[in-house]
Design a protein that fits this description.
Structural class: alpha+beta
CATH class: Alpha Beta
Number of helices: 4
Number of domains: 1
Oligomer: single chain
Shape: globular
């Protein structure tokens, strides 16, 4: 299991910076973290049940709560506060950030949604 040695929220840029023991470091946007929340509300209860999140361009994190020695709970300013972000999940998001982001942008396009920042 990958374990973080630091987790820092940069509120102004809406970036969560995570550094892991073995040296990997990732910058994850609050928008990506929100749209990839591991909660049932976002991820569904199984493959293919994901719920596309719209209008999350300006979302920010208001709280980071530790959960044991294996995860954090992120509280977002849009009221979303379910879903536990395990160390392995955060590491995967970091490693595959660009792929997840492109997949999200394609899903938005397929749904006919234009992000505010892309106008």
């Amino acid at each position: 299991m990958q374990r973080p040695i630091s987790i820092n929220l940069h509120k102004k840029s809406r970036i969560l910076e995570i550094r892991f023991e073995e040296g990997a470091a990732f910058e994850l946007s609050c928008e990506l973290l929100r749209i990839k929340s591991p909660s049932a509300e976002v991820s569904g209860h199984g493959p293919g049940q994901e719920v596309l999140q719209l209008g999350k361009e300006d979302v920010n994190i208001t709280e980071i709560e530790p959960v044991g020695n294996y995860a954090i709970k992120l509280v977002f300013d849009d009221g979303h506060d379910t879903g536990l972000y395990t160390w392995n999940y955060l590491y995967d998001l970091g490693l595959n950030r660009d792929w997840y982001w492109q997949k999200y942008l394609q899903a938005l396009k397929d749904a006919g949604y234009r992000r505010k920042r892309d106008e």
